[in-house]
Prior knowledge:
- The complex is a heterodimer.
- By secondary structure, chain A is an alpha/beta fold.
- Chain A has helices at residues 2-13, 18-24, 37-43, 63-76, 92-97, 130-141, 154-158, 161-169, 175-192, 201-207, 220-233, 237-253, 268-271, 276-286, 321-325, and strands at residues 31-32, 47-48, 51-56, 81-85, 105-109, 197-198, 258-262, 292-297, 308-319, 333-345, 354-360.
- In chain A, strands 5-4-7-8-3-9-10-11 form an 8-stranded mixed β-sheet, sandwiched between helices. A two-stranded antiparallel sheet of chain A has the order 1-2.
- Chain B has helices at residues 11-19, 45-49, 58-61, 74-89, 118-121, 124-138, 150-159, 171-175, 187-195, 201-205, 209-228, 257-277, 303-306, 325-338, 372-386; strands spanning 3-7, 28-32, 39-43, 68-71, 95-97, 109-113, 143-147, 163-165, 244-254, 280-291, 310-322, 345-356, 391-396, 405-408, 430-444, 447-453, 456-471, 479-489, 507-515, 520-527.
- Chain B is elongated and about 120 Å long.
- The chains are: A alpha/beta, B alpha+beta.
- Strand 5 of chain A pairs antiparallel with strand 13 (391-396) of chain B, so a sheet runs across the interface.
Amino acid sequence: MASIAATFEKLKNGEVGRGMQGFRGHVAAELQPSGVAELDAVLGGGFPRGSLVELCGPATSGRTGLAFSLLAQATSRQEACAFVDVSDSLDPVSLAAAGVDLPRLLWVRCGETPGKKPAAESSFFDSPEEKEHARKFLQQADGKKIQGQFWTHPRDQIRGVEKAIPSLLRVKPEGRESARIHVVKKLTDKKQTEKKQTETKQEILRRHTSSRSNNLPGTEFFQTAGMRDRMATAKPWKRLEQALKTTDLLLHSGGWGVIVVDLADISWVDARRINLSVWFRFRRELENTKTILLLLGEESCAKSCASLVLRCERREESWSRAARDAASGASILQGFSVQGEVMRSRSQSQPSDCARWQTQTMNR
Amino acid sequence: MPFACLFVPDFSVQAVVRVEPQLRNKPVGIFFGAPPLTKVFAVNHAARQLGVEAGMTKVQAEAFCGIEWRWRSFSEEVTAHAALLDCTWTISPRVQDAEKQNKDDLADTVVVDLAGCEKLFGSPDKIATDLARIASNVGFDAHVAVAETFLAAQCAAQGFPGITVIPGGQESARIGALPLESLRIPAEFLETLKRWGIQTYGEFAALPELSMVERFGQEGRRWQQIAQGKDLKPLIALDFPGQFEECMELESPVELLEPLLFIVNRLLDQLCTRLRLHILAIGEVRVTLTLERNDSRSNSQSNSQNKAPLLHIRTVRLPVPAKEGKFLLKLLQLDLEAHPPTSPVTAISIVAIPAKTHSRQLGLFLPLSPDPERLEITLARIQSTVGEGRVGSPELLNTHRPNAFQQTRFAQPDVAWNINREGTNAKAALRIYRPPLAANVELREGKPARLTCEGASRPILALAGPWRAKGDWWSETGWARDEWDVEMRVLRPKRHAGSVETNAEETALYRIYKDQFAKRWFVEGIYD
């Protein structure tokens, strides 16, 4: 008791070693400017290096533009960057327009591996095995060996059932059916009123006689329409697995300025099925490095592993007046304003801090 | 003008032992010839101690226990000879093969001109010691001799074991004591000379020249001059090779990748050792696997076609020259995993095209970049994960055609300090749908009013356009389209957790276009 009292006394007098003080002391993280001055002012200088940063928001919320801006800043400092494109939706023209030095960017396009049969190609179509496959894939991506290949613990079998039930009971989307009805309706409308012009697939097939069109990108539709439908409804486990493995490899190799993992086209419900230990491991790998792992998504899915969570929202788009009025004449989409709200931060900025900035569309 | 000579005794055996180091301290013999005329071609010293001699039949030779038997491999002898030349090229570029016993054999003796090398490498003793050490590193147990004349150095290397340095003027005295067998005189000459009672170099060299010519002709005179240590002709230097090769023929076909990689590793180590002697690195590696043919199905007509070897060739090009065998092994492993051979492998050949070693000035303020060697392995691993052609740097093509790009190999450009970028405005990025989504568009007064895509019908709330673009109209790949930027409710609404409900009120900005040739509408992408 006497020794404890003596220790407290030393603590009170500040006589305890420097290690404790160093532990308590705040170590300021190095910051990488994002390229948006308004946001950098709120964040105290930019995104923290050596950490996981999440940019979340709905479609057309400016998160991809912000990521490109960060990449442009990093590549302008001669740093090597990587973009893990889960949905193969990156537009190199936009990248170049944003000022990214393209030779310094590694672009990894995830998708089905050509020539290799996917491990679970068709088993993710809302089937009862869906969750089981997802769990296996994500555990493999996590680097764990699956314990007992043919046996699962009842607790694991029950876990997540409440989320799986809606997908099991889901009725086949009425979209395609309604589309057909819609087209028929429009056809009848066309017959009745010639003011409305409707171009349907059937008409195109009839009129599609030009040999030129065979080389157009649009003709891929006939060959890949089924694939597109399947992609739209298929679960993205294969792509996610590839993306996580790629990110792991990139982090292990080291020396990257910014690594962007683009989950923006992945439903946040699916993205949150990624085991949290994956993000935890990534965060540990990022520690004591200068790499920023930027995660784009609909919602935050890395939870407390993210050092900064920024939510983007589109506030107001700026159209030319002629476009608003839908009047004849040239019109232009000039851009839109984005509001970024800090949802979680371990640096100087506080949650609920907001910044608003204007984005510009590319000049055609 | 001193010369150094490097002689590898039992060259055929050492060529095999070099790629199989586990045989180094064992008695080894080499068979050669088609059955039933198979004979012992060469044996090493340990096997000779057991009583085996070259020229024995296979049946006779196999009666001896404890001897490792291998078949003669010409490809391994070729690479061993190249390695032997590499050893001497480390000292001087003026290198020549010595006389061969048979035309078909490769020279086991290499002579190097040491003129001017003393200032660089030290005394003849030190040069001889260095040559022996280098040969040992490459895998040879070689004899080294330094003498004033070409032939004196050659005779000393072939006659004396270990390192021999003969001072100028003492050649005839030192070489004269050697037995005639070490001169490699043809058997009929040797037999005649022994009948005359001549046993050593010195006795042979002292014979009257005229009498020698009368009895043995010009060939006898040539051998006598060799025994006297006179240089018959000047040294003609060999050319430096443009590539380095290591080969190995396998006793039995290998089906699995893992045992194959053990052999590849061994060959790569040999290649790296040889290249290191020249202070070079590997810029490109070409692996040629000779595959086993399945002859059971082949008929007599196709036999002639089947004689051609079935090869599996893989080439790995390195943006940064590599010096480490482990790094190359990993790259080759990933490449062979992605492109495995279709049949068991019977022989391996690895050709390395040399490149100058990568030198880079390091600094405290260099930007962040991955280690080049680790980067290559990482890229290869990623490529094996996502597929070929899906990893690299984007590069825009010189055309106005939309979505025209290609992916090039990712390699870190050199540092340029003149780029300065401060405070840029954020740009709205476009996220592309690949392939574009086919859509039906309802027009009102020539402008899109409603869009139907992926089973969802959306009214268009605001729009801008059209932006008319056209190109390549002079060719079959012509394109023309009208682009519109539209605002509408999202096509793929955000899902709520645990339910099928979606937030249908969200709007987004899309780019749609009408293909003027196909007369069809597509959704190209979404602004974000």
